[in-house]
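ok here's Scarecrow-like protein 3:
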Amino acid sequence: MDIFPEDTVSSATSSPASSLYSPSPHGYGSWVQELSHDQQGVRLIGLLYQCAAEVAAGAFDRANLCLEQINQLASLDAPHTLQRLAAVFADALSRKLISLLPGVSRALQYSTAASCSGEAHLVHAARRHLFDTVPFMKLAYLTTNHAILEAMEGERFVHVVDLSGPSSNAVQWIALFHAFRARRGGPPHLRVTAVHDGGKECLASMAAVLAKEAEAFDIPFQFDAVEARLDDLVLLLDTPDALRQVLRVRSGEALAISVVSQLHRLLAADDVAGAGRTRQQHVPGSSCLTPVQIMARSSPRSFGELLERELNTRLQLSPDAASSVVSSLSPQSPAAQQQRTPAAAGAAKLGRFLQAVRGLSPKIVVVSEPEANHNAAAFMERFEEALNYYGSLFDCLERASAAAHHHRQHAAEERARVERLVLGEEVRGVVAREGAERKERHERLAQWGRRMEAAGMERVGMSYGGMMEARKLLHSMGWAGSYEVVHDPRGEAFFFCWHRRPLYSVSAWRPAACRHSGGRLGSS
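and the structure:
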């Protein structure tokens, strides 16, 4: 495990499980008062590892004892980041433990979904603060645009498909307008298709902003919106040519695909309930139903019906069911062995999607992903990787908050919101969830390379010019020093690092068959 700085990062979450470790009304125990700050930090890390091991073994009593001790050392509003980090991981471990109880797991998911839906506007604000505070998304957008610009040299009709969903931002495409307008020969006719499940208002707002900017830059522009999750597009793969129709891929246009921090979600096991959430909006309007709209109308289920079913079945289980669920978490148990099967199903789903993308004949596909291994089969391996990875991210936030000398109180409040609503939710996704609900399945670039090549894709080198542009951004924003952009040894990808630790990667790909063809689209 990495050595955490004294003020190493931490994240707050809001959850029903938080009552298991919220600060005691009686304050610190005497044993806590006898420990120095450094000793408390060492003790916290040890308790987290011990608690994770007890949770993995299904040892309720021992895990709960660990949580009670963590409670005396950590809280979500503590002054030190390691204390807050411990609090959010305790929340995730609490949820993991609770999920073993028959009938409770699904109810907890609904409670969390209801809580998150009520704070949707706060989540948006938190994501915006994260974007403004740390440079990773800005670097991803800049280097993606640079790769697209180079791939589209000489093209007069360009279609960019944005598969980034919640990570998409109109700022990226406004910057691409700038780049295209400055290129020799002038800008192309540009079409952007955004796949996003943020609702019609979100997509309409993006359309309006981009249309206004395109007009100001005198760039011929069209915006199409597909109101769906990336997961939902996978449901189209059994229908011939449906993906091409939904994304409106046309002959005569050079196609680029951008996906920021979303592909890992396709590694989750197939979730057929996703079909009921898929809708489509065309800006401007569409006159006929698409395959996505048809699927959306075919699902009769509601959250209320699902919850009622769960309450009428799983909560009626016999007392012996609890012990059987606990024992199923043992690494040698049949249930633990079966947990590998959904992961394989998820990998197959991703492979089918990447092959379908390859079939669209894009000139370039640019992939940005967290540089972490949060998809390991072993729970303890995921836990340790997550503790180190999010420790670094929360450290980034803490340093940025501390640097806001004139608005320190406001910066601390914004930082707490990001920790609670964005990063805290990701930690829960890695640590507390399993099966189709575990969407945060981040993998390292080396593994992504194997997956892309297995789907018939080949690497496109990321240019030195793109790296220099990224470094220039870091210097202009005052981020140089702690942050850096590193070319991989073969010059085929970028890593965005915090104190030399890679936290994100960006790589570019194209269909292997296009290496001599110029990447032009065939007939649709």
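+1. The CA atoms of residues 118 and 140 lie 30 Å apart.
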